[in-house]
Amino acid sequence: MRIAVIGAGAIGCTIAALLSRAGHEVTVTARGAQLEAIREHGIELSGVWGSFIAPVEASEVLQSGPELIFVTTKAQDAEAALRENAEFIDGLPVVVVQNGLGSVTSAQRILRRADIVGALALYAASYTSPGHVTVTTDGVTCLGGPDEATALAAKVLGRVMPVTITQNFAGAQWTKLVVNHINALPAITGMSAQDVISDWGLRRTMTRSMREAVRVALARGIRFEKVQGLSHGLLRIFVGLPIAVAQALPLLMKARMGAIPNPGSTLQSIRRGQLTEIDYLNGAVISAAVEFGVATPVEQALVDMVHEVESTGVFLTPAQVAERVRR
Question: Do 27 and 161 fall into the same domain?
């Protein structure tokens, strides 16, 4: 099958390499050093799903029409990427693999004739160097959307990685958004997610931000889908526990990550000198809270600190983080 992967970051390269290894004709879009490395050497994938080099076609924008498309850009880059490639993808099945809450509706607005499938990557992959990605933790890809297009995506992707299908994709997005709260503090401090959670003060801040997100979702009537061990019932209990007890949840998440340091996608963007997705992660919670009057002071502090590190390149210490959150 002719498959296009729009956005050759860590997740995009993982999908592209695995599908290429399975025998599909894969094209990726990329820019700069990543584009040159893939053109010259292919995608080098290592980690829990094997180590190999996948020869794929690469260009800044698609040059011909595929049969199935995966959109794996950062959330803030998705609209521009979809518009740039709409000529070749509108009217086809498009799988949007992104964090945040608005990926599916945004794609539907731009690609009016396409069948849009939402996808959540529940494994961890790190961009190591141009053309090289390491999968540090395995996991499933959760899909939701029109039946026929979702079945096709599940059939193709399910042959190279674990896949699940949900009828409650919005609930899965919110659960994944809670999981993605591991991202902000590594980006702010330069520490791995495991080291952040091991620090008592940072773990407390993470717990508070996660609780704000859960309260906003519940106020909006969201029923959380079970994702990475988190469920609706567990998260309802989580927001009512004393903060000292509630910190067991990030500790559980740390245990699921394994021993390989996980920088999180937001810190990876910082290290590459790129803008992060923070406005689509913690920032999405802040936006969603406004309508229901739910307070999100910790979320706002984290978003502000990530933007500060984006602009200055200077990480903050745990003590500095604690001070900013107290303000």
Answer: yes
- pLDDT tens-digit map of 133-180: 999 889 999 999 999 999 999 999 999 999 999 999 999 999 999 999
Domain count within the chain: 2
Residue 254 sits in which domain range? 172-326
What burial letters (b/e) apply to 209-248, b meaning 16+ CB within 10 Å?
Answer: bbbbbbbbbbeeebebbbbbebebeebeebeeeeeeebbe
Helix/strand/coil percentages in the chain, nearest 5: 50, 20, 30
- Please enumerate in sequence order all residues whose Cβ is within 8 A of that of 309, keeping only pairs 6 or more positions apart, or say none: 187, 188, 270, 315, 316
Residues 6+ apart with CB under 8 A from 133: 10, 13, 14, 17, 43, 44, 45, 46, 47, 125, 126, 127
**Angle of CA points 77, 211, 282, to nearest 5°:** 15
Q: Last residue of a domain, which of 151, 167, 183?
A: 167
Residues 301 and 189 in one domain: yes
The tens digit of pLDDT for each residue in 51-94 reads 999 999 999 999 999 999 999 999 999 999 999 999 999 999 99
Instruction: Give the Cα separation of 123 and 121 in Å (integer).
Output: 6
Q: Which of 167, 186, 207 is the last residue of a domain?
A: 167
CATH classification at residue 129: 3.40.50.720
Q: Could you read off the pLDDT of 227-273 as tens digits, one per residue?
A: 988 999 999 999 999 999 999 999 999 988 888 888 888 999 999 89
The three-class DSSP label of residue 230 is strand
- What CATH code is carried by the domain that includes residue 255? 1.10.1040.10
pTM of the model: 0.93
Lookup: tokens for 131: 């053309």
Helices (H), 225-281: 232-240, 243-246, 248-257, 264-271
For residue 72, give the 3-state DSSP assignment. coil
Region of 131 on the Ramachandran plot (φ > 0 left; ψ -120 to 50 alpha; else beta): left
Q: Do 12 and 148 belong to one domain?
A: yes
Q: Which residues pair with 5 in a beta bridge?
A: 28, 70
